[in-house]
Amino acid sequence: MAKNVFIICTIRSATQEYLDKLEKYVSDLESSGIKVYAPHRDTNQMALGYEICKQNMQGIIDADEVHIFYNSKSQGTHFDMGMAFALGKSIVIIENEELTEGKSFQRMLVEWQQSA
Predict the structure, then answer these.
(1) Which one of 44, 88, 92, 99 has the lowest number of neighbouring Cβ atoms within 10 Å?
(2) Cα 16–chain centre separation
(3) How many distinct structural domains can be found in the chain?
(4) Could you give the angle at the alpha carbon of 39 between the alpha carbons of 34 and 45, nearest 5°?
(5) What is the domain-level CATH number for residue 54?
(6) Any idea of the CA torsion for 55, 58, 64, 65, to the nearest 10 degrees?
(7) pLDDT by residue (tens digit) across 22-46?
(8) d(Cα 77, Cα 95) in Å, to the nearest integer?
(9) H or E stretch at 94
(10) Are the C-beta atoms of 96 and 74 separated by less than 8 Å?
(11) Torsion angle defined by CA atoms of residues 49, 104, 116 and 71, in that order, rounded to the nearest 10 degrees
C-alpha cells in the first residue's frame, strides 16, 4: 500500500458536499497511516496559477500513488492527470464519470489503473 498519496480533485467549482466527501476520504487514509497531499488543503489556492501547478507537481512527484476524483469539467484535474501520467504514477480511481462509447478520459483512467 502507498505511503504517500496525492489527491487529484476539483477545487474551484467544489460544493460543500463534495468537500465533505473529500475530507472524509482524506481522513480515512490519514487515520490508516498514509500521508496525503490534498490540494484543496495543502496547495496555496491564493497563489497564481503557475505557482499552484508547481506546488501540485511537487506533491505528485513525492507521491507513491495518485488517487483521482475525476470531473470532466475541471481543467485542473486534467492538468494534474497529465503530470501524473508523465511521471509514470500509478493511480486509484475514487470517482469516475460514466464510461462513454469510444475514446474518453473516463475510459483512459480505467485503462491506466489496470496497467499498473
Answers:
(1) 88
(2) 18
(3) 1
(4) 150
(5) 3.40.50.450
(6) 40
(7) 999 999 999 999 999 999 999 999 9
(8) 12
(9) strand 90-95
(10) no
(11) 40
Do 113 and 105 form a contact (C-beta atoms < 8 A)?
no
pTM of the shown model: 0.94
**Residue 24 CB neighbour total at 10 angstroms:** 10
- How far apart (Å, rounded) are the C-alpha atoms in residues 10 and 36? 16
Domain that holds residue 38: 1-6+21-95
Question: DSSP string spanning 10-56?
Answer: --TT--HHHHHHHHHHHHHHHHTT-EEE-HHHHS-TTS-HHHHHHHH
Cell representation of residue 45:
489556492
